[in-house]
TrEMBL record:
It comes from the Bacteria. GO terms for biological process: L-methionine salvage from methylthioadenosine; L-serine biosynthetic process. The keyword Oxidoreductase does not apply. Pathway: Amino-acid biosynthesis; L-methionine biosynthesis via salvage pathway; L-methionine from S-methyl-5-thio-alpha-D-ribose 1-phosphate: step 4/6. Belongs to the HAD-like hydrolase superfamily. MtnX family. CDD domains: HAD_Pase. This is 2-hydroxy-3-keto-5-methylthiopentenyl-1-phosphate phosphatase. SUPFAM superfamilies: HAD-like (SSF56784). GO terms for cellular component: cytoplasm. The gene is mtnX.
């Protein structure tokens, strides 16, 4: 089986969840309940995240971008991990519930833009509003926003061995479709509780070791 990798961005590639960091810094207190409702799966991701960004003035765009550039750090080993997948010919896709305006600058010169699936933020109205270009297909009714399982169905073939790398409840539906999950934080807990095949990680050097070991064994 041919390997293919689907990797989350916020809290996975970066050391922090950028949406949470943005909200803590720029949003009024109402964002907290929206965040809790999303994490507890009381409301959909698209509804919760859309409402959170609608709390922010569009005029904050430059300040938010500068803030993310200064505070978001790529997890150690990610560049080496990307280089390995390129050399090994393993397709790598970033599937993120994050926003284009802060993901693009952080992944510049690391990955081509056509390997990144995320949401689009717009700043041409008083409040920021979100466009969801990767909505759920007819096999998903979770209102994911950026629907990771849908993207996986579009990009992976029947003979592919699917790796999912992630950290949060927002990666769980994708994890259910994986042959192997490489997880940390909340996603790791859910994989343990649900009995999904998984390995834990902290840095992408860990991910690289897991990938090399499995691919060398399969070869």
């Amino acid at each position: 089986m041919k390997p293919i990798i689907f990797c989350d961005f916020d809290g996975t590639i970066t050391n922090t969840d950028n949406i949470i960091s943005i909200m803590k810094t720029f949003a009024p207190p109402e964002w907290e309940k929206l965040k809790d409702d999303v994490l507890q799966q009381k409301i959909s991701i698209s509804s919760g995240v859309g409402k959170m960004f609608s709390l922010l003035d569009s005029g904050l765009k430059a300040d938010i971008i500068q803030f993310v550039k200064e505070t978001a750090h790529i997890r150690p080993g990610f560049r080496e991990f990307v280089k390995y997948t390129e050399q090994a010919g393993i397709p790598l896709y970033i599937v993120s519930g994050g926003m284009d305006f802060f993901i693009a600058p952080l992944l510049k010169d690391i990955l081509p833009t056509d390997a990144v699936f995320c949401n689009n933020a717009h700043f041409d109205k008083k409040k920021i509003y979100i466009e969801w270009p990767h909505a759920c297909d007819d096999q998903c009714d979770n209102e994911c926003g950026c629907c990771k399982p849908t993207i996986m169905r579009q990009m992976a073939g029947a003979d592919d061995y699917i790796y999912v790398i992630g950290d949060s409840v927002t990666d769980f539906e994708a994890a259910k479709q994986a042959d192997l999950v490489i997880a940390r934080d909340i996603l790791l807990e859910k994989c343990v509780n649900e009995g999904l095949p998984h390995h834990g990680f902290e840095t992408f050097y860990d991910v690289l070791d897991i990938l090399k070991q499995r691919e060398e064994v399969k070869a």
